[in-house]
Write a structure and sequence with these properties.
- The structure holds two protein chains of two kinds.
- Chain A is an alpha+beta fold.
- In chain A, α1 (38-49) packs parallel to α4 (129-145) and α2 packs parallel to α8 (327-346).
- Chain A is globular and about 65 Å long.
- Chain A contains 13 helices and 28 strands.
- In chain A, a hairpin with a 2-residue loop joins β6 and β7 (106-112).
- Chain B has a domain at 28-63.
- Helices cover 65% and strands 0% of the residues of chain B.
- Chain B has helices at 13-22, 29-47, 50-61.
- The two termini of chain B are 24 Å apart.
- Classes of the chains: A alpha+beta, B mainly alpha.
- Chains A and B meet through α10 of A and α2 of B.
- The complex binds flavin-adenine dinucleotide.
Chain lengths: 538, 63
């Protein structure tokens, strides 16, 4: 009656019978999250840290085996840092800077990512998804110990939802049988095949790419394999359109073979067949198989991520091709975006309309991700004869000439989107200021003495002043805006990233660390207006 | 506004044309296609200006 759909790597939230199950009437909770994957747990951390009671229901008792995501980008790690679990990820993760690109039998060029200095987190790390998830669950447990109102219930499968105007009734199945639970708001983080999406009859539209990938995670024995990313176009070891090799912690390597659509999955997944591919590629090395799987992908999204009291986040709301590692990375931004908005509305500090902006902003983000990963896919797997000719022309030129290298697209690094021109934005009134920290952009980190800017900002509305005066706190109809007073002196990165040619600056930041507005000087009325705009209170 | 130069701009047009065709002499269709594609990319980088490139692409796609 209650079988696992996948094997667990870590059993972290074993089923326990909850008092709710014995109640005659369904118990109402402010927020119920369906799905305890990375995005569901991130959303729970966000809400719990704001003291909003939240219940996570997951149909398993822990984290699934097998890594899936391995690349976690800077913004994703910064969000995890705000939740208090970024550092263990960074400590465990692998950082690489050297990439090599191959076409057919030969290496065509190599590149160094040359990351910008002055950030707490690197451009990205490689880390097995089960570790990423485990660090978040450990943080959840620590917050529980501090008395934060977060609950996670294992083997609680949501079988039906009844969406009312102002709440949701959920039918939950457990090893002790079914029970009902109610939620003022429900967040569906139940993954790419989202049962909740089906229950609501919502469509998931976009492109399905007719290709499959064979992933093998292998542990190298006694080999000094370099910490680099290798990408092959049309590899001579005879494995389809592309192959990617990547290092993970614990001497584990990820190899991704693009093997085409018409494959016999069962046959391909036999160890001897995987080894045949690996041996053809790696030559004479000794390794042990850790995990393997075949997956296909799609580039799809829901039309809207909000349906009354129901929100969709993570893979349930959008799915992208794996090139560019945007799945979990963008899902974390969903959690970051939804958390503070739900918090303010539940506390009665902002109107319901604020919640619509979640869909507005994250649909915008999803489209950007889908665009980028579709472009990578089209480069890696050309769809027509002519696009194949051009693609190979780019690779051929890239071997000899630097100019063609930026055209080589083997997956673009996931970067967070800038909410240009969207409804929560205030005025961009700081002449000469840098473009990268414009209104709508996520903040850019910078070292401040021994600390980091983003750690100092935290997760509230903040007024960051650089060599400008402002009150220490301002109460704007119940929302407290705290000042962070900084100076350009001795902080060259801060000056470069936030002042540009300006002499002074006042930045208003949202709780998810996006820029709401910026000015040269503080002015009470302007800040009030901008906070009201950013919370849909106008 | 950057525009595509539609006025004659190549000195010695016959010589240029001959050089262009010479590159394709004795080549298979596949090799020629590859040469053309590389040439487009090299020239596009030389121009650099995205607006001019877009206009040139649109002009070429006109039938
Ligand atoms: C091969 C591969 C490589 C990838 N590489 C990367 C990468 O490098 N970087 C990156 O950012 N992303 C990557 N991704 C994407 C990433 O794995 C996903 O985006 C991420 O796991 C999405 O998290 P989620 O929480 O939305 O969904 P999931 O991780 O799918 O979690 C959904 C959860 O909901 C539970 N659930 C489902 N139905 C119910 C129900 N009815 N009731 C209760 N619970 C339910 C599930 O058991 C599960 O725990 C990759 C994906 C694949 C397949």
């Amino acid at each position: 009656m209650f079988d696992d759909r996948y094997t667990l790597a870590h059993k972290l939230y074993p089923y326990e019978k909850h008092a709710d199950q014995d109640k005659a009437e369904a118990v109402r909770h402010p927020v119920v999250i369906v799905g305890g994957g990375p995005i569901g747990v991130a959303t729970a951390l966000d809400l719990g840290m704001q003291d909003i009671p939240v219940v996570v229901l997951d149909d398993h008792e822990g984290i699934g085996m097998g890594s899936r995501a391995i690349c976690f980008a800077k913004r994703c790690l910064e969000i995890a840092d705000r939740y208090g679990c970024g550092e263990p990820m960074l400590d465990k993760g692998v950082v690489w800077n050297l990439g090599k690109v191959f076409h057919k039998e030969g290496k065509i060029y190599e590149f160094n990512l040359l990351p910008e200095d002055g950030h707490k987190y690197p451009a990205f790390i490689n880390l097995q998804q089960p570790y990423f998830e485990r660090f978040m669950i450990e943080r959840l447990r620590a917050l529980q110990a501090e008395g934060k109102p977060i609950e996670i219930r294992g083997k609680n499968r949501v079988d039906a939802v009844d969406v009312k105007d102002d709440h949701v009734v959920l039918d939950v199945m457990t090893p002790d049988g079914p029970y009902k639970i109610e939620a003022d708001y429900m967040v569906a983080c139940d993954g790419a095949s989202s049962p909740v999406r089906d229950m609501l009859g919502e469509e998931f539209t976009g492109k399905v790419f007719q290709d499959s990938f064979l992933i093998a995670d292998i542990k190298m024995k006694n080999v000094d394999f370099p910490t680099e990313r290798w990408f092959w176009f049309e590899p001579s070891h005879g494995s389809g359109a592309s192959t990617l090799l990547h290092k993970q912690p614990d001497d584990v390597w990820r190899i991704d073979f693009q093997i085409g659509w018409d494959v016999d999955r069962k046959e391909e997944l036999k160890e001897e067949n995987i080894r045949r591919r690996l041996d053809a590629m790696l030559g004479d090395v000794d390794y042990e198989m850790v995990w393997s799987s075949i997956y296909t992908f799609q580039c799809k999204r829901m039309e809207k991520f909000r349906h009354g009291p129901v929100f969709f986040a993570g893979d349930a709301a959008h799915q992208v091709s794996p090139f560019g590692a945007r799945g979990a990375n963008s899902g974390m931004q969903d959690a970051d975006n939804l958390g503070w908005k739900l918090g303010l509305v539940i506390k009665g500090l902002a109107p319901d309309a604020l919640l619509d902006s979640y869909s507005e902003e994250r649909v915008y983000g999803a489209d950007e991700n889908i665009l980028n990963s579709t472009r990578s896919t089209d480069f890696i797997t050309p769809k027509t004869e002519m696009s194949h000719i051009f693609r190979n022309a780019v690779l051929n030129l890239a071997a000899k000439h630097e100019f063609a290298r930026p055209l080589v697209n083997s997956g673009r690094l996931s970067v967070p989107c800038v909410y240009d021109g969207l409804s929560l934005n205030g005025p961009d009134a700081l002449p000469g200021a840098p473009d990268r920290t414009r209104v709508g952009a996520p903040m850019v980190d910078a070292p401040i003495g021994d600390d980091w800017l983003l750690s100092m900002i935290g997760g509230d509305f903040t007024l960051m002043t650089i060599d400008a005066e402002a009150p220490e706190t301002i109460d704007i109809n119940g929302i407290e805006v705290k000042r962070l007073a900084l100076t350009a002196e001795g902080n060259p990165e801060l000056a470069e990233r936030y002042l540009g040619d300006a002499k002074t600056a006042v930045y208003l930041m949202r709780p998810d660390q996006h820029v709401v507005a910026r000015w040269e000087r503080f002015d009470t009325a302007s800040v009030k207006r901008a906070v009201n705009t950013a919370t849909a209170r106008v | 506004m950057s525009e595509v130069n539609t006025k004659p701009n190549i000195e010695g047009p016959d010589d240029f044309y001959e050089t262009l065709l010479a590159a394709h002499e004795g080549k298979t269709k596949e090799e020629s296609d590859a040469i053309n594609a590389r040439l487009v990319l090299i020239l596009a980088n030389q121009i650099g200006d995205r607006e001019v490139l877009s206009k040139a692409i649109a002009m070429a796609a006109e039938t």
